């Protein structure tokens, strides 16, 4: 199995714990920014962590929980009980050098997105207000986006976080594009993780991660609750007919901007659809 594909460890509790150290492998030796954790809690269970030198965005993928962070009580958060309801998510920003706690009030799935923090922002709710499901693309490249914390929202020091819903038989993160050079404003270096879900649950999808020189070329079949790592290169996803795909993207790098370039062989698709 590719070291860019991470399967969940069990079905309850903390099923993903991807740190900078654990993300490093033969295909991602220089990984240094993005972390991702995932809790699958039953009602009454608690998750709690200290942030250390990292900022965190908690995303209630589904279900409800009472949240505390940075010595503040944010009360019960969460609304959608199934991610494929496609409603706006409830999210909470937690700065570095603080801590957080979540007590599940229903069964819930809680994502923990992290990156280096610089004490530039205070703990705050990030949704559902200010997050609107937006259509992107054309034809079978159409997908639907919930931008949680992209650069148009000054809500984090490093993190860029978004949700994507890809309909059955469609592609997304497409045309193939990359953001693996620190060359602002032409391109920014951003590592990225994808947390995948499929509907119906037994479905699968595909993701390819490859560089133009062929040094990296991995094609992965993903199931619900899998996480993929994108250290560099192009990284499109495909949802087979009969299954819709959701993914939660986490990106971070030296600067908090998203600038990318399409693969030169496939850039004509984007130009045609402008």
Features:
274 residues; mainly beta; Jelly Rolls; seven-stranded antiparallel beta sheet; 2 helices; 4% helix; globular
The average pLDDT value, as a whole number, equals 97
Can you identify the CATH superfamily? Jelly Rolls
Q: Determine the structural class based on helices, strands and strand pairing.
A: mainly beta
Q: Which CATH C-level class is it?
A: Mainly Beta
Number of domains: 1
Order of helices and strands: EEHEEEEEEEEEEEEEEEEEEEEEH
Distance between the termini: 38 Å
CATH level 3 topology:
Jelly Rolls
The general outline is: globular
Please bin the fraction of helical residues. under 10%
Using only CA atoms, what is the Rg?
Answer: 18 Å
Catalogue the unreliable spans.
none
Q: Which CATH architecture is right?
A: Sandwich
- Largest sheet, order of strands side by side? 1-20-17-22-14-13-12
**Proportion of residues in extended strands:** 35-45%
Query: Counting H and I runs of at least 4 residues, what is the number of helices?
Result: 2
Q: Could you explain the architecture of this structure?
A:
There is one protein chain. This protein is mainly beta. The protein has one domain (5-272): Jelly Rolls (Sandwich), CATH 2.60.120.10. 4% of the residues lie in helices and 44% in strands. The protein has helices at 20-23, 267-272, and strands at 5-6, 13-18, 35-41, 46-50, 54-62, 65-69, 72-77, 90-94, 99-104, 108-116, 124-125, 134-136, 143-149, 160-166, 171-172, 177-178, 191-199, 205-210, 217-222, 227-230, 237-238, 244-252, 261-262. The chain has a 7-stranded antiparallel sheet, with no helix packed on it. A 6-stranded antiparallel sheet has the order 2-3-10-5-8-11. The protein is globular.
